[in-house]
Amino acid sequence: MFQRLLFSLLFFCASLSHAHEDPLSAYFVDLWTSHDGLPHNSISAIAQTEDGYLWFATWEGVARYNGRSFTLFDRNEQTHMQDSGSKTLVADANNQLWVGGARGSLATRQGKVWRPNASAPGLINHVLIDHNKNLWIAIESLGVIFRPFIQEGQYGEDKWLIKDTSAYRLAKNSNGVYAGTANGLYQLTPTSADKIDTDLFNRATYISTGINGDILIGAENGAWRWDGEFVHSFPSELSNQKITVVEQDHNGSYWFGTINKGVARLSGDELEFISVEDGLPHNRILSWFEDIEHSIWIGTNGGVIRLRKSLFNTTSRVSGLIGNYARTLLETSDNRLLVGTNSGLTVMKGGHVDPTTPPSEGLSTLSLANKKGGGAWVGTYQKGLLSWQNGVLQKELDDKSGLPTNQVRAILEDSNDNLWVGTTLGIVKKSPDGQLEHITKLTHGLYDDYVMALAEDETRPNMGWYRFGSGLLERQSVSSSEFKLTGRRPVCVWLLPRARLRLASHRPRHRSI
Hints:
Elements (H helix, E strand, L loop, with lengths): L4 E2 L1 H8 L11 E6 L12 E4 L5 E5 L2 E5 L4 E4 L12 E7 L3 E6 L4 E5 L2 E4 L7 E6 L5 E5 L3 E5 L1 E3 L2 E2 L3 E5 L3 E7 L2 E6 L2 E6 L2 E4 L8 E6 L5 E5 L2 E5 L4 E3 L9 E6 L5 E5 L4 E5 L2 E5 L10 E6 L5 E5 L2 E7 L16 E6 L5 E5 L2 E6 L2 E2 L11 E6 L5 E5 L4 E5 L2 E6 L10 E6 L5 E5 L2 E5 L5 E4 L1 H4 L6 E6 L7 E5 L2 E5 L7 E5 L2 E7 L3 E6 L4 E3 L1
Parallel strand pairs: 1-24
Antiparallel strand pairs: 2-31, 3-4, 4-5, 5-6, 7-8, 8-9, 9-10, 11-12, 12-13, 13-16, 14-15, 17-18, 18-19, 19-20, 21-22, 22-23, 23-24, 25-26, 26-27, 27-28, 29-30, 30-31, 32-33, 33-34, 34-35, 36-37, 37-38, 38-39, 40-41, 41-42, 42-43, 44-45, 45-46, 46-47, 48-49, 49-50
């Protein structure tokens, strides 16, 4: 066997090809504890049978979950379990479930029928059924035994492959069966056990199989990956962690359970942690499982959680947004999404930050509007009116070139190619020939100079709606200076067909005009 360590850089270069995943903050968290029907809060193992049921191993029995409630199966004549304390669950073909645990208890359930199996001489930590239906059993403090398959429900005599050490987990790939033990990682055959020669870790407390057949290893000094020839390291942030679980999901991301730091996920080159502060019931992780719907189940010392994609995804600074205070959104004609925040402008496409995001750190954005011919108008807090196109921001108007103030809170380019700019000191209208007109309470009879929204009623040419800090006004025509107060302190405005306007005010009712 080879003893080699490849630099983490090689691992990260390969992992960059993994599909981008939403941040963990975008997942919805469901929690179940003994208050919700679990028999015990320590979840040693999780499995899902072909009929869709989820199963949870605890020290008070096995709980089956149907999506609404739990059913308990413990030590009794029906289950043939010799002890309620269960440590491992393995779903097998033909809707079969293996249940192993204390006192060497080993039972199987197929459909609604439970069957006993010859017990092991100690606590069963894990079982594995190989490609030839042979049975392998990892036993606490004793080692690994092999039972050759004879026929359905019948196995040959036990054969010890590893003795006098704790065996924790078993895994298989196209090269054979592997065992994680207190003495390290072993590759097994029905007649032999060969230790993987490495001094990078001593105890292999958890092993599993990656999607490409690699053996993933959790140890007291971090996580590792064995590709059949080389041992690869995972991120250095994990090197001082006791890893209790290491698994890989269907997207290629790696998940790591720790003894007291919660759960970590490595997606590409980004390592994220979640702990009790993020919804975990306990920071000690005992088990992990991905169900057929690709939800992630995590068993802890304080209950089990499910992480699932929520109906709404959160985009924040963690995922590349330039600021967390998002004030305004705009979809452009090329299917990009502009996000104006208190810290600048972010361009997104397909749910991810687009490379055309311009350098705008510190550019507090208040308003956005589509620009004829492509691009967008950008209203800011301190820089006036800008235009954005093809990833470039350009100055258009400010307090030195015709605006009464640099606070631009509303923008409208109407059907006659007039540009309307709403500020905190009135409206500036820019005609197609470039002439500017300042419309205020004093000069044109506006109800208020603090303009917060502008909209053109396309069903009635030359009609406009303007939202002010203290009301909603209808302008009877673009050329007229007469305005009509039609509401009081509206929050949202909808333009409806046939020249009707619906609005919601601060008062708890809707009004149609």
